């Protein structure tokens, strides 16, 4: 499929799923992308919605029939994820027989961001119908070490067990502190989130992770995860995915895709 066909298919998907009512895909179209924008910390408006990224994300959450999503980095994606979860919930509620699931946060998204400005902006856009579904919180991010390796951690992470994780934050300039004189204020230093390594022991089999860009960070995670993840790097799409491929823990460790 060539690029033109792919774009047409994605635009058709946006229309058929009503995603153009969820996100204004015309936002900030006059924005001129600069190679340093992702690391400058100086953006005053959101980067325009990325059609391919948002459609991919929506499709994945729908195909995985995800129950609970954790997102690092709030933005247009937050509302796209919420729409996918809402549709998953409709299908789940239509089941004649539902298995018992040990999950208090069914069909909810928890998004954490280091920028108080983006958090407040996103919260102001939550529709009344989504106030119970979308949970956005602010957290500082601090530099640290993982087994002697330079990285960073969010100070406060939602107290949940997600089955789908979207890693698209933080902005490196939001990382506070130094280690041996080094910081993430250096434009050439890539982000290096280690939160998922801390969370790994309590992840449930079937957990699906998508890292948007951040290839150096994805390789860091791959090299340091201890459990059995199936890993795919899509160079063209600039994403890396991880799926925790292990024997299920028991009757309560199920995935939505098993039943819908």
Write a compact overview of the structure shown.
With 260 residues, the chain is an alpha/beta fold. The protein has seven helices and ten strands. Helix content is 29%, strand content 20%.
Write the layout of secondary structure elements.
Blueprint (H helix, E strand, L loop, with lengths): L2 H15 L19 H4 L10 H14 L3 E5 L3 H18 L14 E6 L2 H9 L9 E5 L2 E6 L2 E6 L9 E4 L7 E2 L18 H5 L8 E5 L2 H10 L4 E6 L4 E6 L16
Would you mind describing this structure in some detail?
With 260 residues, this protein is of the alpha/beta class. Helices cover 29% and strands 20% of the residues. The chain has helices spanning 3-17, 37-40, 51-64, 76-93, 116-124, 195-199, 215-224, and strands at residues 68-72, 108-113, 134-138, 141-146, 149-154, 164-167, 175-176, 208-212, 229-234, 239-244. The strands form two sheets. It has a seven-stranded mixed sheet with strand order 3-2-1-6-8-10-9, with helices on both faces. Helix 3 (51-64) packs parallel to helix 4 (76-93). It is globular and about 60 Å long.
Class by SSE composition: alpha/beta
The first-to-last residue Cα distance is 29 Å
Q: What is the string of SSEs from the N terminus onward?
A: HHHEHEHEEEEEHEHEE
Q: Main sheet: which strands, in order across? A: 3-2-1-6-8-10-9
**Mean pLDDT over the full residue set:** 91
Helicity, in percent? 25-40%
The count of helical stretches stands at 7
- Rg is 18 Å
Sheet with the most strands, sense and barrel status: 7 strands, mixed
Which quaternary structure do these chains form?
single chain
Which residue ranges are poorly predicted, with pLDDT under 50 across at least 5 consecutive positions? none
Report the count of strand segments: 10
Tell the overall outline: globular
Per DSSP, what share of the residues sits in E-state strands of 2 or more residues?
Answer: 15-25%
